[in-house]
């Protein structure tokens, strides 16, 4: 099979080629207006597929298609929102040449308009699918899965790319083109508009039992979902889709520009694309991980319910996701199972199970959350709580009152500053075989008070399920200090990882946040704990580890 990727050396086209590089039956034509860039891209590859550079312009494809006769044309160029009157030139050329067509379009109107070519595509036995990317193929696949168990009325979703993913110039031209402009969407059952990039929300992407992304600011983006999903799920009364790029201070600058344009009726921000491209690709720092969420509110058996799908991708695997749907359809066509003929949005091209199979060999995880219920650790861990060993489940379902005791080994940090911090928080003194007891009390609001007694030295804190920017974290409070702790399951251990902290409610710098490896485990029928507290510039403050056994049966929870 011969595949022509228009924009093949760009961000999305290049990753599509990367996903298909292991297929020896493929010849991939890396096409674009700049032959030198296409040649450089191909020269850097040693792969099973055959890759060839090609100079081509989407406005004049007839001769290229006639000469090279590809089986499939993929338009991965863009910006699709700026194609103008001849926006479907590539699609029309493909149908005229008898070539199947796919694109990674992110423009709502562009994708919706592809259906006008359905009769022509069917007449020639060709498939032509538009918007074959995360928006709307993956979001729609998630919503179809949710719709099996509830009636969906309101939808919110978003994608949070890694800061190292790289942002293409055409993507920025598209986004800045509609930034500050009215974006058509559905809200509370009515067709309306909101400001592109100017309308915002916050969300923490957190598959159960995994290290969550940091709480992320999302801005409204103009994507195919806004028109395509209500067409297939007519019960949806509200639909909002956003993007959460980082670093946040640059994102906030874009939001401010979008709102200023809307308020002052300024011209398009598209001329700023080269500057934004340079800045966003130069300022890369933070965690190399990204994610996506789709949240649905609705009814089940007449009762309100909310269900949210969370997905996390580590390192270089995340940036591949937008091109995965297109790669999968190419592989299916190569295997003799192409999409049915016709021109349409690609919204129903893949199922969530199809995506799960593509995620499985990569560092990509996903999971579901459905309303906070039960004790706080069960709320934060969600479905992952049921996978904890029985003794760990019992400790974290303390009821109104519970009492555990055991022995511990305590090592205190050296130096005056370490001693001062340890005294401030009530950390135990050093010693071997130290008797320890932990008493739990749960109030009517579900807040747990933990009283730890190390040989008479008492340390007290409260724990609760986080809200707002502390969402999907355990919030542990020592007086005016609040620490947001992620719960991560790895090989039978429950790791407790600091993610954010505050002093009298004011966010504190992450660089100064306490750290250290802390975890729980069940070993030979005994609850084991290991806690390390270290501070930047100070070093180790305290480390204690040991075992506990329950000595008092948990009473019924105070709330029930």
Structure description:
Helices cover 26% and strands 35% of the residues. With 560 residues, the chain is α+β, with helices and mostly antiparallel strands. α8 (169-178) packs across α11. The termini are far apart. It contains 16 helices and 27 strands. It is elongated and about 85 Å long. The strands form four sheets. A ten-stranded antiparallel barrel has the order 17-18-19-20-21-22-23-25-26-27. A seven-stranded parallel sheet has the order 3-2-1-4-5-6-15, sandwiched between helices. It folds into three domains: 2-130, Rossmann fold; 134-316 and 363-368, Dihydrodipicolinate Reductase, domain 2 (2-Layer Sandwich), CATH 3.30.360; 376-552, Lipocalin, CATH 2.40.128.
Summarize the structure.
The chain is α+β, with helices and mostly antiparallel strands and 560 residues long. The protein is 26% helix and 35% strand. The protein is elongated, with a radius of gyration of 27 Å.
Which terms summarize this structure?
single chain, 560 residues, alpha+beta, Rossmann fold, Dihydrodipicolinate Reductase, domain 2, Lipocalin, ten-stranded antiparallel beta barrel, seven-stranded parallel β-sheet, 26% helix, elongated
Query: Which CATH-level-2 architecture of the largest domain?
Result: 2-Layer Sandwich
Q: Radius of gyration from the CA trace? A: 27 Å
Shape call: elongated
Mean pLDDT: 94
Provide the domain count: 3
CATH fold title of the largest domain: Dihydrodipicolinate Reductase, domain 2
**What summary fits the major beta sheet?**
10 strands, antiparallel, barrel
**Major sheet strand order:** 17-18-19-20-21-22-23-25-26-27
Task: Give the CA-CA distance, first to last residue.
Answer: 64 Å
- Helical/strand content category: alpha+beta
The CATH superfamily name of the largest domain is Dihydrodipicolinate Reductase, domain 2
